[in-house]
Design a protein that fits this description.
TIM Barrel, alpha/beta, 46% helix, binds N6-methyladenosine-5'-monophosphate, 8-stranded parallel β-sheet, 14 helices
């Protein structure tokens, strides 16, 4: 590793946008494939390598393949513990994982046991002493409509109360070209009223401005991607103003957007627009397994593309602490951790 790569690795980091099944590493996929050889799944079907690109539609096909490989409690436990250990090994000190509870009739997996298993993985890593604080966002897949969204909110509410603070919020994700967010507003409003934090994928594709405008009235606590919110790419100033007025942080995933072809190149990524405004912008991975990246690499790419000094990059990772969903006391602990590491990392 060159000196620069060492810096990004050692930089303490906060990861706020990581889909569990998109974060499964090569090694874990190998283990899953050997558990289920009859599926005839090859590794090339679960990841998008260096220099490769796919349409967003094709990315969503990849998730379907991974879901076939991850369909028992045992699989989920392995996947979640592996993913948490990998983030920790990459220097991530605080992680919010998100995942869509799934029911699998053939294996007896229920949505409730799905969430319980992710929580068990988090607790197991904690007991092992893995140096990372992990929280969970229960995800709504927009394609499944109003009723499922409401069920998911109820599940998240139950776990918010029973998981000892591990379930902190709700994510709205899934194929942005399917369904309309307006039908999900009652469920999202209910979640918000009960104290769940909301992170919503907004304007990941160009056609969603009207939907984003509606969902911003909730308002959400964070925005995933927000690629097409600003006027330079067909968005609107009034939508940008809503984001600014409510100071809603953006979760930005450079490699995911480049490989999924929603932005033409790293240098044209909307990180630039929001960062220049001084708006809270958090670098994240999205799907580190599918897009073959890690958070250190994403910070490295952002810094080299937008000429950020080590000091500016440190500030970026430090400011991400303000955007986490865990309570103020956790933020304080993390700030202390950053302080303790600063003189050694930021030489
Ligand atoms: C929107 C995405 C996504 O929930 O099974 N997901 N949703 N945009 C993206 N950009 C590439 N990447 C992942 O993880 C996989 C699921 O996360 C959402 C999709 O709903 C996908 O099926 P889980 O752990």
């Amino acid at each position: 590793m060159d000196d620069d790569a060492v810096f990004y690795q050692e930089l303490p980091k906060v990861e706020l946008h990581a889909h569990l099944n998109g974060s499964v590493s090569f090694q874990t996929i190998e283990k899953l494939i050997s558990r289920k050889p009859h599926l005839n799944i090859e590794h090339s079907m679960t990841a998008i390598g260096k220099g490769q690109r796919r349409t967003l539609d094709e990315c969503f096909e990849v998730f379907k393949v991974i879901h076939k490989l991850v369909d028992t409690e045992e699989d989920i436990l392995m996947v979640a513990t592996d993913v948490i250990r990998e983030f920790a090994a990459d220097g991530v000190k605080y992680l919010e994982l998100r995942s869509t509870p799934r029911e699998e009739k053939d294996t007896g997996l229920t949505k409730r046991s799905y969430v319980e298993t992710v929580i068990k993985a988090i607790q197991q890593c904690k007991e092992e002493g893995v140096d990372i604080d992990v929280r969970f966002l229960v995800a709504i897949d927009r394609r499944n409509g109003t009723e499922v969204a409401m069920e998911t909110v109820k599940l998240a509410e139950d776990f918010m109360l029973s998981s000892d603070g591990l379930v902190v919020g709700l994510d709205l994700s899934g194929d942005p070209t399917v369904g309309h967010g307006k039908y999900l507003i009652p469920a999202l409003q209910k979640a918000k009223n009960s104290g769940l934090k909301l992170s919503l994928h907004l304007s990941e594709v160009p056609s969603q401005l009207e939907e984003s405008d509606l969902l911003l009235n909730l308002p959400p606590d964070r925005i995933g991607h927000g690629t097409f919110l600003h006027p330079e790419v067909g968005g609107s100033q009034s939508v940008v103003d809503k984001v600014l007025k409510n100071n809603i942080p953006l979760e930005l995933c450079l490699t995911s957007n480049v490989k999924g072809q929603t932005v033409p190149s790293y240098s044209k990524h909307h990180f630039k627009y929001w960062y220049q405004l001084g708006h809270p912008s958090v670098i994240c991975t999205d799907d580190k397994g599918v897009f073959c990246t890690d958070l250190s690499q994403e910070y490295h790419l952002a810094a080299s593309t937008f000429s950020l000094s080590h000091k500016a990059t440190w500030k970026l990772s430090h400011q991400a602490i303000d955007c986490i969903f865990a309570p103020e006391a956790v933020k304080e602990q993390l700030r202390q951790k950053w302080n303790d590491l600063e003189s050694r990392v930021l030489k």
